[in-house]
Amino acid sequence: MSDRVVNGSGHGSGPLDLNQLRTFLAVHRVGSFTAAAHRLGLSQSTVTAQIRALEQRLGRELFERGARGVAALPYADDLAARLADPLDRLAEATGERGAPEPVHLAGPAEYLGTVLLPALAPLVAQGVQLRVTTGLTDPLLAELRAGRHDLVIATSRPRGRTLSAEPLADEEFVLVAAPVWARRLEGRELPAALADVPLLSYAEDLPIARRYWRHVFGERLHARAAVTVPDLRAVVNAAAAGAGWSVLPSYLCRTELSSGALRLLHRPQDPPINTAYLVQRPAASADPHVTLVRERIVAAARAC
């Protein structure tokens, strides 16, 4: 089969180079020369050279280069839309596509472990492979731009055009403690009464508790944690065991609140809420397993 395709345009005439078009479509889909090179089994310099040659052939730029990846220009989006179906069909016909790659999913450990992985379990039985990475939003988004992940659950909306984000779920923060502390605090004025109760947090700078204080009480929190552990599930367990009070996402301690192992210490009319986002590179992935995982994540978030 020839490595040329018909329908050339721009400065040259005649067919366009098929390998260049394959490389272009890979870069468009992953938003990164580096990630496209990895997916195609090519060197980054080869990918760069092929894209430059295609741009010269067409007489226009296809991507806006940036430090965090590339963003497709409008003509590139139109070209990718025309190429995707025939090139995917060709890959299937020639056996180039092969078995689906593992889906690389990243996000906060607590949300992934508590909400998403149980929901994704049926897909594993259907042959979907998952590679899960946990961590903080900013580093994970940088890795997404570099092509290391397919989907990222982010706790803030990314800036710029290199990534596409949609609101996934709102998590409400609640002020909780074990019943032994809740009984001692009954009838006492909050937040002053909490000064005598140990504070539990997942970080030394108390980001969730400080936000709760600003939003609900309209003041800064001046406190130091008695216990810090970088896993909110461990904070839930410590609070339920009576170690002290904490501010936690409601989804994470729903079971403990229902069973009575934890009690709400405060019921504000306007509780603080944080929005989680499902983030990916703008070009849709050709891997059907990525689509399956994405659809299941959205369904699980809506049902939570």
Describe the structure.
The structure is a single chain. The protein has helices at about 20-30, 35-40, 45-60, 75-95, 110-125, 135-145, 180-185, 205-215, 230-240, 255-260, 290-304; strands spanning about 5, 15, 65, 70, 105, 130-135, 150-155, 165-175, 200, 225-230, 245-250, 265, 275-280. The strands form 4 sheets. Strands 5, 6, 7, 8, 11, 12 and 13 form a 7-stranded mixed β-sheet that branches. Strands 1-2 form a two-stranded antiparallel ribbon. The termini are far apart. The chain has 11 helices and 13 strands. By secondary structure, it is α/β, with parallel strands linked by helices. It folds into 3 domains: about 5-95, Orthogonal Bundle (Arc Repressor Mutant, subunit A), CATH 1.10.10; about 105-165 and about 280-304, D-Maltodextrin-Binding Protein, domain 2; about 170-270, 3-Layer(aba) Sandwich (D-Maltodextrin-Binding Protein, domain 2).
Fill in the keyword field for this structure.
304 residues; alpha/beta; Arc Repressor Mutant, subunit A; D-Maltodextrin-Binding Protein, domain 2; seven-stranded mixed β-sheet; two-stranded antiparallel ribbon; 11 helices; 13 strands; disordered N terminus
